Give the backbone structure.
Amino acid sequence: MTLKERLGKEWLFCDGGTGTILQELGLKGGELPETWNLTRPDDIKVLNRGYFEAGSNIVNTNTFGANKFKFNNVTEIVTAAVKLCQEARHEAGRDDDAYVALDLGPTGKLLAPMGDLAFNDAVEVFAEQVRAGAAAGADVIVIETMSDGYEAKAAVIAAHENSDLPVIVTCVYDETGKMLTGGGVEGTVAMLEGLKVDAIGVNCGFGPDKMIPIVKRLTECCSLPIVVNPNAGLPRTEGGKTVFDVMPDEFSRIMAEIAALGVHVMGGCCGTTPAHIKKLVETVKPLPFTEPVRKHRTYVTSSSACVEIGPKPVIIGERINPTGKKRFKQALRDNDVDYILTEGLNQEEAGADILDVNVGLPEIDEPAMMENIVLSLQSVTTLPLQIDTTDIEALERGLRIYNGKPMINSVNGKQEVIEAVMPLVAKYGGVLVGLPIDEEGIPETSDGRIRVARKIYEAADRYGIPREDIVIDGLAMTISSDPGSAITTLDTVRRIRDEFGGYSILGVSNISFGLPARELVNSHFLTMAMQNGLSCAIINPCNGPMMVSYRSFLALMNLDPQCSGFISAYADYVPGAATTATAKKTTSSGGTLSLGEAIERGVTGRAAEAMKEEIDAGKEPLAVINDELIPALDKVGKGFEAGTVFLPQLLMSADAAKAAFDVVKQALAGKPRTVKGKVILATVKGDIHDIGKNIVKVMLENYGYDVIDLGKDVPPEVIVDAAIKDDIKVVGLSALMTTTVVSMEETIKLLREKKPDTKVVVGGAVMTQEYADQIGADAYSKDAMQTVRYCDSVFGV
Ligand code: B12
């Protein structure tokens, strides 16, 4: 039987750890394990055979890091690994019931915008491994230890585009159920199910017991076979060796508990051995097995957010759309991305759950613009997006590089459109809006619309798109030309819910074209539609009356616990202002972002522009840095600490702060100066934060110092050598993390030893006078100006 036929039908077992076993066989620290496929094939066979003999059905090839960033002979290494695993299986007598799994680990690089690896380049890195593994005869692809859903998506696409092998994906979550880049269990599952993988799970982590809450969440949302491969506890070092504390008996006992939660494939990760797997198989195999259950839940996701359609109506912001908007059209023609991002951020602030993205304009390259705007938006907002286009190429470009499971607007009942759109949705996943329009036009009655809706549902069945991922548009048409149109639309919405148990969507404001005071009609129509079961409302969330209707509906229908959303939005409401009530002002200036807001949101262009405006208005650059730039970064840092802001946003904010700071640098550049002395600046080893240090540099230069900037992550020896070479009087060291204060201390020690007459001034967010004294610095300075004063005192100027 093939693995696909067995997955989810019976207990299957993966293998365990690789690293600890290879270390025991003599792998040295820093040596790449995959080289052994060529240099020590017999040892790799011993590794693989041990697991086949222990009872694993799925044994990984030794290819975790066999990618082009580490090897220039990927194909050779992967081919050898697959052959060795096949031979091991044969020697173990398991040819009939065990499978060779091409193992794919992370590339080791961060994807853009966090790092510099472009999404499609990541796909190509994995594709090279997949082509080699499939050609060599692997039976399945296991994508594992993923801590970024976006990278997992790249690997899945590579697997599907270059082989027809089944694909299993396991990710690493922290104890709160989040991945490094912020993705949670439900959102990741939704994305991977949309991408049509064959099994989903979790690996690595802090040991089997710590995985239980995550496995529970998996069993609540995942409709596919669930895989659980934990570490043998937390690694620790003992006598220079990495050791794990959970032994086979304890491991299998906890795994039996996990098995009872409703999982389907079990194995181990770091620190587990054939002995763990043997015991696991013995313990779990006799236990009752339950097949996966379809969950029928509808999620639209981004890198870190997950919006469920169904429990309550959701708001889709309509403002990123050129229709009828002169300014927006101009922004598209001018490639003014910041304007478009600001439209997105304002809607997020106003309460949108999802952002519609329509960038169609005949005179622009829509596919390129769609890709660009999706990439840009997903780096500044965590809201999921609705890719809205009739251009099939634009749709595919957007879907491919989207980080999550998007909404897609739209398909309709026309055969030609179904055939163009549905294969893409089947490949990339997404929640698809279906317009009940077909070759005969727009049906005038709800009967006609329901007939086309059925056609769309049936087409989705044929393409393997679950019905819960279809949202039918009730088609709001203006009542000014067709007085019965609202009734037909509401009827359609209600029937979609009642006859199909389905979800519906409306472009609400279309109902009022040609009427005065449109928002009054629109907001009442919205209430009526929600009362008839509307699932998704495409509206302008910055419009007061619309949000009044929405929030009131939620409060009245017991969909807003303790009315907390309503209260926080309207606590300052002035009676009588009903028609203009907006929840909060979206931005301090009602449209354009201030410097602080631009940094917090990571809108780079706007941050630079706002800084320039402030300087042009005569403000002192240092004051702007202290009063606006630093507090904005502080706020982001606090959010990061609290787990509400994730690394991608932190990076975007840092970029925006840098852009604003570049403006300051330029503004200060031309000033004449006399040189007072030479100073070294460096961020210490292990620390890559350099914004603060760069500010200090510019201020010192501006006050007459020549600065040798050694950059960031600088080893102590480099700093000391440079100080000796130029006989430097003052070295300034920066550290922003508690963990890197140690490197600062080492640097100071080495300086004292080799260049004792040099003074050391230290700074950075974690530094205090007390710390500075503790590690033997000569001075601490809390900001750039104090650093200048300190240098003036040392140089006697
Ligand atoms: C921006 C930022 C980043 C950016 C850095 C980009 C860059 N090129 O610098 C990115 C996204 C890359 C980043 C990465 C990480 N970050 Co970070 N980051 C921040 C953040 C939000 C702001 C730092 C900043 O630039 N502040 C603004 C500048 C102007 O302030 P400043 O550096 O303090 O500088 C002033 C003074 O201190 C002084 N000064 C600074 N240097 C010097 C030097 C001398 C000689 C002197 C005299 C004075 C001086 O003058 C400056 C001007 O007034 C802080 C939070 C915070 N509030 O500090 C977290 C923060 C520092 N990061 C943190 C962490 C954990 C990380 C990561 C480990 C995250 C991860 N999981 O990967 C990585 C670390 C990577 C590494 N090995 O270094 C933690 C550190 C926790 C701790 N206490 O140890 C913080 C505190 C966030 C948090 N609360 O959790 N980060």
About this structure: DSSP finds 30 helices and 25 strands in the chain. Confidence is low (pLDDT under 50) at residues 583-590. The first helix runs from residue 3 to 6.
